[in-house]
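ok posting inputs for the magnesium ion job
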Amino acid sequence: MYRIAVLPGDGIGPEVTAQATRVLAAAGRRFGYEFCFQEGLIGGIAYDATGQPLPQATLDLCRSSDAVLLGAVGGPKWDNLPVHLRPEAGALLPLRKALNVYANLRPAMVFPALAQASTLKPEVVEGLDIVVVRELTGGLYFGEKRREEIPGGQRVVETLVYTTQEIQRVARRAFELARKRKKKLTSVDKANVLESSRLWREVVTDMAREYPDVEVNHMLVDNCAMQLVRNPKQFDVLLTENLFGDILSDEAAQLTGSLGMLPSASLGDGVGLYEPVHGSAPDIAGRQLANPIAAVLSGALMLRHSFGLEEAAAAIERAVATVLEQGYRTADIMEPGKHQVTTTEMGRLIAELVERGELV
Amino acid sequence: MYRIAVLPGDGIGPEVTAQATRVLAAAGRRFGYEFCFQEGLIGGIAYDATGQPLPQATLDLCRSSDAVLLGAVGGPKWDNLPVHLRPEAGALLPLRKALNVYANLRPAMVFPALAQASTLKPEVVEGLDIVVVRELTGGLYFGEKRREEIPGGQRVVETLVYTTQEIQRVARRAFELARKRKKKLTSVDKANVLESSRLWREVVTDMAREYPDVEVNHMLVDNCAMQLVRNPKQFDVLLTENLFGDILSDEAAQLTGSLGMLPSASLGDGVGLYEPVHGSAPDIAGRQLANPIAAVLSGALMLRHSFGLEEAAAAIERAVATVLEQGYRTADIMEPGKHQVTTTEMGRLIAELVERGELV
Ligand SMILES: [Mg+2]
Ligand SMILES: [Mg+2]
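and the output
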């Protein structure tokens, strides 16, 4: 039995996680696995109920589960709280820290049925399937910062720290992932300027010897930002430090043209955290307009990366592709000539395909 | 009289600067300005002749000129020299430092005739005309760096420093530029995480009060990387710190699909430096295959930003657009049904249009 902590959160979070768990349950029935779902409070709704955006009970639940499925947090209602009580800064960051997830996996893939949603030409993005592996706990975002008065104004100093061990653990994730995919890894850095990037490149180069079956190349971050636009299909797995990954994973996501479709995984050595890339979209919450596919695909990533259930994960991904090919669309990706369905309907269609291999 | 130092450099540098100066001379005749061109050595060719990639005589020439036009430097022949003798690290960086150019202007524009060269859909990029203003002398690239041994490996610490004054001087450039263009400035930062970005945002917000006619908005860098793909035409002038600008200016350049066409300007409070974005392309050097348009447009930027000759600058830009509309193409942008011309021919066509207003 796999214990899954479900944290629906705010906005459309509850709607989309409901469909994700429904699809996971269907996959369990199909392939003979038992999933046990336990809900916890997080975000604004948790603050309203308990005064804390990340209550201790939720943390305890997550730590004692095998994996965590998160919906989304935040909304205008909580934007003016002190930073440490706001849903993002007060819940998401502490949760990642508590779970010590240091590798953020951001797939960017284009389902054939949706290739025209991209601003790029269809032939450039059709069949795109890349994963950005971003280091999540080090670098500039977590360095010491200070601001001081100087004549004529102020001066800010921030620091960026990386250690061999921090680079090794995320690089290993990327190599293992590359080995299971197309055996092609692009490590991104700015080694012509940054000392941290030179250490990064050395560590990756060393580790490459353990993975002779994986083709490794190194690319400067500014060139990578260009290459993602020029020819994104040249990539399979991209490995980057925290700040570069923040920028490049969002750029890669936008290439697909369907942000509402993209899942993510945050992995450490223990419990993994899975969540859609999209936000809580309070403007459409509760109206059956949300696209549950990002949450559903986050569930598939959980099966693959936390539980090693590759067959079930692939079945969910195939079901999503099939439902889209058959012309079903939620409001955000609706086009003329397609069938618009609700959040719940979309979840039901995918779940059915996963469980029976066909639509009823 | 305007004194222009011309540093052709390596690879295709001499071919393209020759056409740029030809076009500048034509603009001078048309509009009644006198330009005096004086050549200096830089890069690998300077190393071969003098043992230094940036000889003192070249530095003296640049400092005593009104502006500098650079071709390109570097090539495989010099790649294995010690870093301080290599063309890029030993010539370009010291030259920028010597001229104290702190604002790098990188226009990304799509000529209607070349819109299909982009990997983005024509309707997304047609008529694109944005400028990235990048801070060029501060931030992470120039901070102190150190590497130390720790148990189990090494640890690198780098520092990022920005002062109020460093931000003010580049921001002022961007505001002044925005005022002359569409009066729209997007300042890019990561103010939700970085203290330097919070200072950046404060300085820009303060300065905005002096420019009530300029519409200012602030955007996070990862969102900006997305928005450049989603809808690049929403932007006019983008202002960023050094590292973010390095990444975003290259991403923006790639949106155009025609890297061989893009000029740049590096400005301080004295002599400005103008150069094509493309490199020295040693593989095609000396074969009349190079596209001189980036160098020609760098000359137009010089007229605009160093000499304030807006009418002459605009005439050059219009001439380039016209020559392209008439179907003339260098090898790099050749398509079926167009007329392929040499580097020299392209320069002649543009110069003629600038001087006479028509092709002979
Ligand atoms: Mg991001
Ligand atoms: Mg760059």
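notes: Chain A is about 40% helix and 20% strand. The pocket of magnesium ion (ligand 1) is lined by residues A 246, 250; B 222 (CB under 6 Å).
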